[in-house]
Amino acid sequence: MKLLRDILDKQVVDREQVKIGKVDGLVAELRPGEPPKIVAVELGSITLGRRLGERPGRWMARVAARLGGKRHAEPHRIAWNKVRDIGVDIEFDIDVRETAIFDWQDWLRDHVIGRIPGAG
Predict the structure, then answer these.
(1) Could you say which DSSP state residue 67 is in?
(2) Residue 64: which pLDDT band, with cuts at 50, 70 and 90?
(3) Is residue 46 packed enough to be buried (19+ CB in 10 Å), middle (13-18) or exposed (0-12)?
(4) Is 26 helix (H, G, I), strand (E, B) or coil?
(5) C-alpha span between 29 and 120 (Å, rounded)
(6) How many angstroms separate the CA atoms of 51 and 25, rounded?
(7) In angstroms, rounded to a whole number, what is the distance separating the alpha carbons of residues 109 and 116?
(8) Cβ atoms 25, 18 nearer than 8 A
């Protein structure tokens, strides 16, 4: 398997097939004398910003922390050992409702979209 080609930018779904987002980054553990080991995938604008460079990554982290608090200053990580299946999508053995991944969408729905006449 070629990780960058086969994993990066693939759709991520939870155990109920709810679309969570796309893989924006891979987290590897470096081990002396052994090949790197993938330990997690990262999703979200902070990791996407980091792919563009150090400055965009730091800027996205500051914006996320300012808008969402300290818990949103880091990318969303899902442990690699939670992978159930790699096919068209990557299925993880998690329930997205138990994570903070949809916090922004929930906030927008409750505070913006819900206030638009006729949107509710």
Answers:
(1) H
(2) confident
(3) buried
(4) strand
(5) 46
(6) 8
(7) 10
(8) no
Residue with tokens 């442990």: 79
Task: Specify the CATH class of 3-95 in words.
Answer: mainly beta
SS3 51: helix
Residue 8 tokens, joined = 């990066």
Q: Alpha carbon of 44 to those of 36, 77, 79: distances in Å?
A: 23, 9, 15
The model carries a pTM of: 0.75
Taking the domains of the chain in order of start, what are their residue ranges? Answer: 3-95
Give every CB contact of residue 66 below 8 A, 6+ residues apart in sequence: none
Mean pLDDT on 41-53: 87
Tokens describing residue 12: 């991520």
**Joined tokens for residue 14:** 């939870």
d(CA 6, CA 95): 23
Region of 53 (left: φ > 0; alpha: ψ -120 to 50; beta: rest) is left
Rounded to whole angstroms, how far apart are CA atoms 66 and 69?
Answer: 6
